């Protein structure tokens, strides 16, 4: 029995990681990734204006707690009124990454002293400290995190926060909005495949000849629902 399939799926083995990874994908050292942080409206204003501050402790010790899972960020602060929740979109330089995937891991609180910049807890790893089973990251140095957008906020504060972000001194004269490749050359991000592109060589995008969806040839996967 044959099954018709229109589309493709590929796996990249290069050293140029996507800016957006799935929650279960392991981050590569020195990558720059899109992540999210959930907080209150009041704290969102402070973070946008002054940047992040390192927490004094937590399940992974000192650092800033973020996640590549937007849905997880949108749950915070826990037990708060949903109208007071804000999810900030971030660009994060992960540096050297340590995987922490079990309770009482020997480096659960000391990974930074061993030369790591970020601790990564993969989803559904069974840690008691993560009852939700959702992916989590702890970035030791707040300077490696930049707010680039408002992923979620109540309508009555969304415009205010967006304007605050546009006016933030953290955004003045910075190219943090663009990822950089291994050689340090500034790069943009393709809006379709979410892979880094040199500024002088944007990816070619065009409608799929089958379903009409806008596609990029460097997408890892595209399945066309059209049947002929």
From TrEMBL:
It holds the Pfam family PARP. One of its GO terms (cellular component) is cytoplasm. It comes from the Eukaryota. GO terms for molecular function: NAD+ poly-ADP-ribosyltransferase activity. InterPro entries: Poly(ADP-ribose)pol_cat_dom. Residues 34-108 form the PARP catalytic domain. Belongs to the ARTD/PARP family. PANTHER family: GIG2-LIKE PROTEIN DRED-RELATED, GIG2-LIKE PROTEIN DREP. This is PARP catalytic domain-containing protein. The gene is LOC127376673.
